[in-house]
Amino acid sequence: MDKKQKAILIDLIHPKMLKRHALERMVELEELVNTYGGIVIVKAWQKRFAPHPKTYIGTGKVTLIGEEAKQLGAKLLIVNAQLKPRQVYDLGEMLRPYGVQVWDRVDLILKIFAKHAKTTEAKLEIELASVRHMGPRIFGMGMELSRQGGGIGTVGIGETNIERMKRHLREKERKLKEKLEGYQNGRDLARRHRSRQGFKTVSIVGYTNAGKTTLLNALTGRKEYAANELFATLDTRVGQLYLPTKASTALLTDTIGFIKDLPPELLNAFSSTLSETIDADLLIHVVDGSDPNWHKHMKVVEEILERLGVASTPRLVVFNKQDQASSEIQSHIARALEDQPPLWISAAKNKNLDSLIEQIGNSL
Question: Of 19, 116, 251, 349, which has fewest CB within 10 angstroms of its CB?
Answer without folding.
Answer: 19
